[in-house]
Amino acid sequence: MSTPSSGSIAPEELIAHYRLMVLVRRFEERLSDLFSEGVITGTSHFCLGQEACAVGAVAALRPDDLVTSNHRGHGHFLAKGADSGRLLAELCGKATGYSGGRGGSQHMADFSLGFLGSNGITGGMIPIATGAALTQKRQATGRVVVCFFGDGACGQGAFHEAVNMGAIWDLPIVYFLENNTYAMSTPTAQAFRVANLAERAVAYGIPGYSVDGNDYFAVREAVAQAAARARSGAGPTLIEAKTYRCCGHSKSDGREYCPVGELEGWQERDPLRLMQEALGQRGVLAGSQAESIAADVERELDAAVEFARQSPEPDPATAGQGVFASS
């Protein structure tokens, strides 16, 4: 797949997407700090190092297209337009959060943004995304669904069943596999006999492509082509974005299983650094602009933290709302 030049994309849009990648990175780092301070309890799954996947993929979509996420979904949600304050409030269990403080990190949604939800079950959103794509086809909405999931989800039966159904029904869906090298602590090389998981697409008779998941432009172009194919009625595409999570599986994971020097090697291809360098080479972003963007993101996150801290706790009287049955 070809990679587009920035000449075909407005400079203002590229700068906005660079800022969004910085926001995703700093949101996750702030969130980690809040866990360490005891402001938030439990655990969470960060997408540090995977920012180009979320932002690049959503950049290729129409505003009314739909996205489903997984347990590592803060970046996907922010890329789809989530407010950082409401997102943080949800993680703090506050009433102003996207799920009223009840869903937490793994169960958030905002249908008005086209974000159909994250999910704590590995591979759990793949069938849901396929069902959403079936709805788009039957109702002839012209919308495309992008389904984010990780390499670990490829071992679930739901992955095979859902992708096969998407293929045989020519559904308007892009299956976006973020191969971040580990499923919890299991390296992909130990879990699969193929070097490129995109090769699995041949079993379903659909296109499969492996791209550099740390390259915003490569991700965006791959999803743009897949979305155009899906929108035309030609069916799904499986995209494998090869990337790396520069943190543990969850907050309590110390990454002892990672080889010495592996993290440092991947940090040489940090997606924010690659994006900043690419925009600098194209004359779109100067060093002073990057500093200004970083400061602006910090101000936004300062306001988000304050909003979450000051937000009210959920009213116990509403505990029976939003459930299938109550006493």
Task: Draw up the topology in text.
Elements: H1 11-36, H2 51-59, E1 66-68, H3 74-79, H4 84-91, H5 125-139, E2 145-150, H6 157-168, E3 173-179, E4 182-183, E5 186-187, H7 188-191, E6 208-212, H8 216-231, E7 237-242, H9 262-267, H10 271-281, H11 287-310
Parallel strand pairs: 1-2, 2-3, 3-7, 6-7
Antiparallel strand pairs: 4-5
Helix pairs in contact: 1-2, 1-10, 1-11, 2-8, 4-11, 5-6
Tell me what you see in this structure.
With 327 residues, the chain is an alpha/beta fold. The protein has a domain at 6-10 and 47-82 and 110-288: Rossmann fold. It is 42% helix and 9% strand. It has eleven helices and seven strands. The protein has helices spanning 11-36, 51-59, 74-79, 84-91, 125-139, 157-168, 188-191, 216-231, 262-267, 271-281, 287-310; strands at residues 66-68, 145-150, 173-179, 182-183, 186-187, 208-212, 237-242. The strands form two sheets. The protein has a five-stranded parallel sheet, sandwiched between helices. Strands 4-5 form a two-stranded antiparallel ribbon. Helix 1 (11-36) runs antiparallel to helix 10 (271-281), helix 1 packs across helix 11 and helix 2 (51-59) crosses helix 8 (216-231). The longest helix has 26 residues, at 11-36. It starts with 10 loop residues before the first helix and ends in a 17-residue tail after the last helix. The model is unreliable at 1-6 (pLDDT under 50).
